[in-house]
Amino acid sequence: MHKILISREVYPEVLARLEQHFEVDYHAVDAPLTPKQLASRLADKDGVLTMPTERIDAALLAACPRLKVVCNSAVGYNNIDLDACTRAGVMATNTPGVLDDTTADIAWALLLASARHIAAADQWVRTGQWGGWKFKGWLGQDVHHATLGILGMGRIGQAVARRAAGFEMRVIYHNRTRLSAQREAECRATCVDRATLLRESDFLVLMLPYSPESHHAIGAAELAQMKPTAHLINVARGGIVDDAALIEALQARRIAGAGLDVFEGEPALDPRFFTLDNAVLTPHIGSASSATRMKMAMLAADNLIAALNGDRPPNLLNPQVEKPAR
Q: Within 25-116, where are the H helices?
């Protein structure tokens, strides 16, 4: 029987399903293993169900000669060195699709919260500073009829765009590949160049996957092109935004606000974020609904079962390794 590791606490249903197929080593704690612990636990394993907190790189793969498949319970996989996996003959998978709507929801939650100062207003009430209603108190910005810009128009970006119809927004986007005319019509979205996107968006939502090419895709130069009334929303990955440049832009009110679910070096945030009254901060909870996290873990389990049964996993990231080399 194949041996696998579940690297972090999951739902009992997921554990029970995997125990039907494998000898399971279960790290039943909702905290990451250290790299040394992970290597030790994986040394005799054929497969692993990982979370985005586990780094899978060449050094770890070299220490785990039996490993055949790494199944990430996330759509992003920048924690996995895909080239190293391919060279080692190890399949890698992710969990796309099942979290699209939930992540689009959090993008909208942050957009609305940033536009209407929800987090700062909540603290104002909680700390006893509310002294009465004022005509010009807590003036935010209208979302309805505004321009929504989306940088990265994959499945989640399209889900964000479709939600804009209820606010009668103009939707523009920039993507490496333009959508089909049918998809653009479904999203009521117009493709524009990056400069136009930055210049005309009232709310700019980032939906790029993280890669060396997208590192600091939004930095000081890009922020300078945005409207002073614009809001930046990032629910994609930390590192896409130059956090230091963003903090400086928010401090100087060069843009109006930001809604951020991801950060560089998270969870160790730049402490200057905590001093900003025009930023809404959440702890990487884009896919954090019970139903969606269950779907993600079950899809990761599907990938793991398929791979170790000799079948092609549903979400294989490196098809060059359809059959494991070791």
A: 35-42, 58-62, 82-88, 100-115
- 237 is annotated as an active-site residue: yes
Q: Which residues pair with 260 in a beta bridge?
A: 234, 281
Category of 167 on φ-ψ map: left (φ > 0), alpha (ψ -120 to 50) or beta: alpha
> 149-166 pLDDT, tens per residue?
999 999 999 999 999 999
For this structure, is 199 an active site residue?
Answer: no
pLDDT band of residue 317 (cuts 50, 70, 90) is very high
Of 174, 237, 264, 293, the active-site residue reads: 237
Of the residues 155, 194, 199, 284, only one is catalytic, namely: 284
Question: Which one, of 178, 141, 142, 143, lies nearest residue 157 by Cα?
Answer: 178
CA-CA distance, 45 to 91, in Å (whole number)?
A: 14
Residues of the chain with CATH 3.40.50.720: 3-98+290-321, 100-281
The pTM for the full model equals 0.92
- Bridge partners of 56, per DSSP, are 80
Is residue 325 very low, low, confident or very high in pLDDT (cuts 50, 70, 90)? Answer: very low
DSSP-H helix ranges across 127-240 = 155-163, 181-187, 194-200, 220-225
Classified as helix, coil or strand, 249 is helix
Residue 231 is a catalytic residue? no
The predicted pLDDT at position 323 comes to 61
CATH of 100-281, one of 3.90.226.10, 3.40.1110.10, 3.40.50.720, 3.40.50.300: 3.40.50.720
> Which of 216, 203, 5 has the alpha carbon at shortest distance from 110?
203
Give 199's Cβ-side CA count (13 Å radius).
Answer: 5
3-98+290-321: what fold?
Rossmann fold (3.40.50)
Share of the chain above pLDDT 70, in %: 98
